[in-house]
Known about the structure:
By secondary structure, the chain is an alpha/beta fold. About 25% of the residues lie in helices and about 30% in strands. It is globular, with a radius of gyration of 17 Å.
Amino acid sequence: MTEVASVLYGREDIRRRVEELGRAITGDYAGREPVLVSVLKGGTVFLADLMREIQLPLEIHFMAISRYGTAEESLGRVQILLDLDVDLTERDVLLVEDIVDTGLTLSYLLSVLRARGPASLEVCALLDKSVRRITPLPVRYAGFDCPDRFVVGYGLDVAERYRNLPDILAVEDARAVRDAPDLLASLLTAP
Ligand code: IMP
Ligand code: MG
């Protein structure tokens, strides 16, 4: 039987890369107090690790959105289910995302946030599936340039499962796993 999923980025690779991103952000935002914005839920694991690698005063805030169908179907338009409770005027905003795929969702969110008058607005994404990009989108900080594979773990889910895997795995047959998320259940059992 072929493996259902294989490690694409292991926890040690992720740790090292997150450390580098944190160092870059610390340098670039020196003397400022960035507002890190995370979109629930995928980006939360990355945010939790990244914020501890940034040696600056900072704030974290969360948004929740719901999509109308896939990103392509909705052209990125989303409904904001939970909005920020912070005034972004003249703040340095860094949107922290797990993965940028078509970029449609994120470009819509950026337009929403830009309208609130921040001093700066940048994107930090752990994974950048740049080959899938439909809309041009500047990702200022990207962890890894991700191949066009379906990935799970480290916050990324399939049908809300497997966010707690410490590594990021590429799924061989994404459709089969979407239809039957239990296919990956063995990944959760202790050795
Ligand atoms: P897009 O950039 O608007 O196409 O959508 C990005 C969102 O799609 C991410 O925030 C994820 O929630 C989800 N997504 C895209 N690719 C993957 C993947 O490979 N695994 C899990 N979720 C994904
Ligand atoms: Mg997400």
